Amino acid sequence: MARGTVYLVGAGPGNPGLMTIRAKELIEKADTLVYDYLVHPTFMQFVSPECENLYVGKKAGCHSMSQEEIQSLLIDHAKQGKEVVRLKGGDPFIFGRGSEEVKALRAAGIDFEVVPGVTAAIGASAFSGTPLTQRDVNSTLVIVTGHEDPAKPDSMVDWRSLPRENTTLCVYMGVSKLGGIVEELLQAGFLDDTPIVCIEWATMGHQRICRGQLGTIVKIAESFELKSPSIIIIGENAAMGEELSWFEKKPLQGRRLVVTRSQGQASELSQKLELLGAEVIGLPLIQISRSIDPETAKDVFEELGSYDWLVFSSPNGVRYFFEAFFETFDDIRSLGFIRIAAVGQSTAKEIKKFFVSVDLIPDEANADSLADALIETGSMDSAKVLTVAGNLGRETLYKRLDEARAIVDKFVVYQTESTDLSEHPAAKMFREQGADAIIFTSSSGVKSFVDQVASLKLEDGALRPKTASIGPITSAAMQQQGMPVDIQAKEASLDSLVEGVMEAFAKDPN
C-alpha cells in the first residue's frame, strides 16, 4: 500500500477568515483531520463526510493526548495510505511543536508538507491596532514564550538580556506568569511607563484588550480578569492601539452568536454577522444530503416542457435540482419557457448562479406568501406546477395551490436528518462558552435543536443565550416548544434578522 502524506497546516490565530487558500484545499480533501484546541470549529464545515476527525487538543492542565501519541497517530494514518491534515492553531513552526512532528515523520519515512499560518502575534497586532514595527519608533521585533517560569534558573528565555531600545517585545502564553515577567523586565531596566497591551482571544469576535504600562499592568490585568489565550505586546508601539484600533469599533465585536445551519454548508447569515465583528458559531443541527428517486427524476425531466411553473422553496432544492438536471441535459435552454418562482431572496440568488432569471419572489420568505403571490398571478387554474423541496417540506404550499385548481407535482431532491452533536467541535464550544444569542431561521431548525437539547446542555459559567427568530412561522414553532422569542425580525429576511440582532446587541457608537 502506498503511504499517504501528512500536511502540517497553520489554522491561523482563531478567526476563520484568516485561513489560507491552501489550508482550505487540504482540509477539503483530507482523509484524516487531526486538530488542536485553538482551531475554530468553523473549519469543520470544509471537511468531507468521509473524513475521520481526531481531536488532540492541549490547554493548560488538560492534554487529551501526549506529543508522542500525536506523532504516532500521524505516522499510523499516513502508513494506511491516508492524506492527513494536522491542523494547528497559528503557525506550525512558532511555538507549535511542528518541528518535533516533522522530525518524527522524516524518521518514519513519511512525506510531509508544511503550510504556514498567520501566527498569533501578527493577528493580535492587526486586530488591536498595535503595529509590531514602526520605522520612526522601532526596527526590532522579539518573540518569546512566557510559558516557562522566568524566575527559574534553567529558563531558556534570558529576560534580562532582551533589548530594551527601539524594540517591540511579543510574549506568547504569558498570562499566568505576567507578574514574574514584568518583574524580570523591570529588573532588566525596562521603564515603569513602558506601554503594554494584552490581547485575549486575538482576532475573535469575543476578543478583549487590556492596556496599561509595565508598572501598572499586573493590577489592571487582575481587575480585568485577563485569561488565556492572550498575546502580550510590550514597547512604544503598544500605546498606538487607541489611535489605530478598528476591530473594536465594529458594532457586534465582543458578541458570540450561534447560527443554526446544515452540516457542511457555509451560512450567508454567518458572513453578515462576522462582517459586523461578531464571533459566529455555526451549529450544524441538521445534515442535508441529496435524495432523488431515479424513476421520479426520469418522469419529471421527460415532462419538464409541459410545466407552467417551476417553484423552489429553498436554496438546497435549487442546488440538488440543477445537479440532477445537468445529469440529464447539457444545456440550460432545456428548461424551455417555464416560469420560475423562488420562496425568497436567498433562494433566488442560488437560482441566478445558473444564469436563470426568476419570475416571482414574494415579499416575505415563507410558504404562505409564496402561495399568495402565485395565486395573485391569476395563472393557477389548470396550471401544471412543479414544486422542488426536501423530505420535510411543509404541505402549506401544495394545499394552497391545489385549492387554486393548479395541478401540483412535488419533486423531492434532498433529505434532512439530525446531526450527531455529541462530539462535534461547534457543539463543544457552545457547551463550554455559551453565547449571547442563538438564531433560528426555520421551523426545522427549532425542532432539531429541541430534539438534541440534551447534547447541548451548557456547562456552569457558560453564557446563557437569548433567542432570535427570522419571522412569525419560526417564532410560532419556538413557542410551541416552550422556547422564548427574545428577538424577531420585522420582516422574514436575513437582512431584517441582522437588523434585529444589531438593535439588541450593538455597541453604543458613542
Protein traits:
five-stranded parallel sheet; elongated; 510 residues; 17 helices; alpha/beta; Rossmann fold; nine-stranded mixed sheet; Methyltransferase, Cobalt-precorrin-4 Transmethylase, Domain 2; Cobalt-precorrin-4 Transmethylase, domain 1
Put the structure in a nutshell.
By secondary structure, the protein is an alpha/beta fold. The protein has four domains: 113 residues, 3-Layer(aba) Sandwich (Cobalt-precorrin-4 Transmethylase, domain 1), CATH 3.40.1010; 128 residues, Tetrapyrrole methylase, C-terminal domain (Methyltransferase, Cobalt-precorrin-4 Transmethylase, Domain 2); 120 residues, Rossmann fold, CATH 3.40.50.10090; 128 residues, Rossmann fold (3-Layer(aba) Sandwich). It is elongated.
What topology does this entry show?
Blueprint: E1 5-10, H1 21-29, E2 32-35, E3 52-55, E4 58-59, E5 62-63, H2 67-79, E6 84-88, H3 98-107, E7 111-115, H4 120-128, E8 140-145, E9 167-172, H5 178-187, E10 195-200, E11 208-213, H6 217-224, E12 230-234, H7 241-244, E13 256-262, H8 268-275, E14 279-290, H9 294-302, E15 309-312, H10 315-328, E16 339-342, H11 345-352, H12 367-376, E17 384-390, H13 396-403, E18 407-418, H14 425-433, E19 437-440, H15 443-451, E20 466-469, H16 472-480, E21 487-488, H17 494-505
Parallel strand pairs: 1-6, 1-7, 2-3, 2-6, 8-9, 13-14, 13-19, 15-16, 15-17, 17-18, 19-20, 20-21
Antiparallel strand pairs: 4-5, 9-12, 10-11, 10-12, 14-18
Helix pairs in contact: 2-3, 10-11, 12-13
